[in-house]
Design brief:
Blueprint lengths: L1 H27 L9 H7 L5 E2 L2 E2 L11 H13 L17 H5 L4 E4 L5 E5 L2 E5 L6 E2 L7 E2 L8 H4 L3 E5 L10 H7 L3 E7 L3 H6 L7 E4 L4 E4 L2 E6 L19 E5 L4 E4 L8 H9 L2 E7 L14 H10 L2 E7 L13 H13 L2 E3 L6 E3 L16
Helix pairs in contact: 8-9, 9-10
């Protein structure tokens, strides 16, 4: 009995030390970001979408999964899935910096949800996750399918604005922000996300935080932060302490919408009613699973969301860079193309690194570049 008590004490002591070590690591390592101040939280308390210290969705949602779902996910993680990753590194097109620096409206995709936009000759970055791994640590997490793309930042022109949709590691990347912060004029972020950027050395005066439906002007562009059905957090103890959403960016010739992450719901029709039509809509439709159906859309739902927001041309995002779900890595674009054809939606699928001019007759026949075999 005495021996058993000693073992319990040793185990408790070990777990306590482990917990203290993890807490110290998280508090010391800047990759985990910062926390909102008391004054900031007092402002959030006045918001309808902030309840008991947490941001909430328009439609009540719960992250809790059933025991059977958790077991099945563990099984899928161990057994793996067919073609979840490319056979080798996927190619990145030679970037045409002259085209990007030109005055024509354009779009360049860097995989997943990272885009470099040129609208009214303003250079804009959306969710610039260009680092090698979607994780706070280098030894665990999903690795990028292509080469490390951080070096691209050195080649970029001066960036007028960065738009962040939420603070997850596959969207808000610490190494990318460190390289970008001195060549970006301004950052637009959801409420709470400024704490991360400030901890990483971004000047407070260069950051604008917005709530859902907040609208502002930036160098002649109209910028709106829009709702999505998702969640936030860079570790388990700060879940939903920052907001999430999508962006509307309206220029003279291009009306663009990017959805950010989130499940399908009525907010898309509301966005379309308030700000549509859009020349181009960037809609997430990857990393989906029946066990988290509320948090990510299927490709078919993505096409419907595009129709709801009254988009003309569509591009699927949230695929092509990282494996965060159990479907094959090419399944999202293949299913989206099939659904788009049925719905008579012009779905473009440029190569990673390819620059597309956003003219009135945008049409890029899919090259099926993802068929690497």
């Amino acid at each position: 009995m005495r021996k058993r008590k000693k073992m319990v004490v040793y185990l408790f002591s070990f777990l306590l030390l482990l917990g203290v070590g993890i807490t110290l690591f998280i508090n010391i390592d800047p990759v985990f970001g910062g926390n909102s101040s008391k004054e900031q939280k007092e402002v959030y308390d006045k918001f309808d979408n902030y309840v008991n210290g947490k941001f909430v969705n328009q439609v009540p949602t719960k992250m809790i999964r059933s025991v059977s779902d958790n077991f099945s996910m563990l099984k899928d993680s161990i057994s793996g899935g067919k073609d979840r990753n490319p056979v080798g590194q996927i190619p990145v097109s030679l970037i045409d910096w002259n085209k990007i620096k030109g005055e024509e409206d354009s779009l360049t995709w860097f995989g997943h949800s990272a885009f470099l936009l040129s609208i009214d000759n303003k250079k804009l970055l959306v969710d610039p996750m260009l680092g090698p791994i979607a994780s706070p640590v280098s030894f665990a997490g999903s690795k990028r399918y292509s080469e490390n793309m951080l070096h691209i930042i050195d080649e970029m022109p001066a960036i007028d604005a960065v738009f962040i949709t939420h603070d997850h590691y596959d969207h808000l990347d610490y190494p990318s922000i460190l390289k970008l912060k001195n060549k970006v004029d301004h950052f637009f972020v959801p409420y709470g996300v400024s704490a991360h950027l400030i901890r990483w050395g971004v000047a407070k005066e260069k950051i604008t935080e917005l709530n859902w439906w907040d609208e502002t002007e930036f160098q002649g562009l109209t910028v709106v932060f829009t709702p999505s059905k998702h969640f936030s957090g860079r570790w388990i103890f700060n879940l939903d302490t920052t907001l999430w959403g999508g962006w509307v960016i309206l220029g003279k010739n291009t009306r663009l919408y990017t959805s950010g992450d989130g499940g399908y719901d009525a907010h898309f029709k509301e966005i379309g009613k308030k700000y549509g039509p859009f020349n181009i809509a960037l809609i997430e439709g990857g990393q989906y699973d029946r066990r988290w159906s509320w948090v990510h859309m299927t490709p078919e739902q993505a096409v419907q969301a595009h129709l709801d927001v009254n988009g003309k041309d569509m591009m699927l995002m949230h695929w092509g860079a990282f494996t965060l779900a159990f479907h094959s890595w090419t399944e999202p674009i293949e299913r989206a193309l099939n659904e788009a054809k049925k719905a008579d939606v012009n779905l473009i699928a440029p190569k990673i690194g390819e620059t597309v001019l956003l003219d009135a007759n945008l049409h890029i026949p899919p090259s099926l570049w993802w068929n690497l075999n």
